[in-house]
Amino acid sequence: DVAVLDVKLPHLPRWIEHRRHIASLYHEGLKGIHGLRLPPFDGPRQSDVFQNYVVRTAKRDALRAHLREAGVETLVHWQRPMWAHPALRIPDPGLPETASLCREVLSLPMSAETSGADVAATVDATRAWFAASMACA
Length: 137
Known about the structure:
This protein is mainly alpha-helical and 137 residues long. The chain has helices at residues 2-8, 12-30, 60-69, 96-104, 116-136, and strands spanning 53-56, 105-108. It has a two-stranded antiparallel ribbon.
C-alpha cells in the first residue's frame, strides 16, 4: 500500500545506516576468530545494507546451540539446497560449495532494534565458544 510506503520510506536511510553501524560492530568484534568467516565488508565495489549479518563456520550447529543457551537468537535461512527438497524433484547438480554453505551459514541478530549491547553479548558468547572449542581441539 502506498500509504505505508509514504510513512516508512523516509526512515530507510537511517535504518540502513543503523544496520551498517551494527555490522561494523560485529566485524570489529568477531574478526580474527580462527574458523569463523565474516561477510565481506564495504569496499570500493560494494556497499552492503546488511539486511542480514551472516557468518560461516563448519561448526555452525554447535555454535548456534551455544548462542541459544546464551540467549542469542540466530537464524538459518538456507537449511538445505533447493535440490534437496524431495517435492521439487530437482536433480542434484553437483554443487558442493552450495551444499557447504547450507550446512555452515548462520545469521546473527540484525534489525532496526539491534543495539550495541546486543552485539557485545553476541560477540562475547561467540568468542567464548570458539575459545572453549579451540581449547578442546
